Amino acid sequence: MKRVEYPAAIRALIAELKRMPGIGPRSAERIALWMVQARDARPRDIAAAVTAVCEHVHACPQCGFFTTEPLCEFCAAPDRDNALLCVVEQPTDILPLERTGVFRGRYHALGGRISPLDHIGPDDLRIASLIARVQDSRFSEVILALGTDVEGDATANYIAELLQPFPVTVSRIAQGLPAGGGLEHADELTLNRALAGRTRHGKVS
After folding, report:
1. Which pLDDT tens digit goes with each residue over 96-124?
2. pLDDT one-digit tens code per residue, 70-94
3. Which of 187, 92, 77, 200 is nearest to 140 (CA)?
4. Cβ(131)–Cβ(162) below 8 Å
5. What are phi and psi of 95, to 5 degrees?
6. Cα gap 143→192, rounded to integer Å
């Protein structure tokens, strides 16, 4: 007996939704059917929003955050502190720090962290552009807001070593962050205390 399936268009939508992180087969099917059946689903608006993001949003060439302009709002803002540079792993780590209201300097997203097991080395990250920014700018302090796990420590140590020839203080936030955790797991109060209590970075043994 032939198995009855959804029409090809719905199957194709389910297949695409399953590619998204955190969405399994059941969730993909529910979302697809919601788009087809719900009166307020507005699938054309969803499609238009996705298309607009794909066509217009890109990484800021300076810090790596998301923008539709030549530079993101953080890099384009003239009133930020040009003496402070906060280095994070991912562009998504910038907003949690910004929402604390404590940091008003510049940002630099690496695009990940050094992880030999995942075949991610220094050349796969935005480390060269970070060094170039420090060399060409007047930063007096570079704050490493990286995760406190093994990969975060390795990345922090590597960057701190590269920055030794430059006249900048290298510090790292750690106070209040959960062991082995990243910025995405910390609330605003924790990040506030972590920024305020940052210490000069020393090589992790």
Report:
1. 999 988 899 999 999 999 999 999 999 99
2. 999 999 999 999 999 999 999 999 9
3. 200
4. yes
5. -60, -40
6. 14
**Distances in whole angstroms, Cα of residue 200 to Cα of each of 4, 54, 92, 107:** 64, 40, 24, 18
The correct answer on CATH 3.40.50.300 for the domain covering 61-200 is no
Q: Which of 92, 26, 31, 20 is nearest to 63 (CA)?
A: 92
User: 50: how many CB neighbours lie within 10 A of its CB?
Assistant: 10
CATH superfamily name and code, 8-56 = RecR Domain 1 (1.10.8.420)
Structure tokens given for 100: 């604390």
4 CB neighbour count, 10 Å cutoff:
5
Q: Which helix (H) or strand (E) holds 12?
A: helix 8-18
**Mean of per-residue pLDDT scores for the chain:** 89
| Of 168, 162, 167, 156, nearest in space to 201 by CA | 156
Cα 51 to Cα 47, 56, 85, 116, 170: the distances in Å are: 6, 8, 33, 35, 41
User: Which residue ranges make up each domain of the chain?
Assistant: 8-56, 61-200
Phi, psi at residue 202, to the nearest 5°?
-115, 155
Distance, CA of 111 to CA of 134 (rounded, Å): 17
Q: What is the largest CA-CA distance in the chain?
A: 75
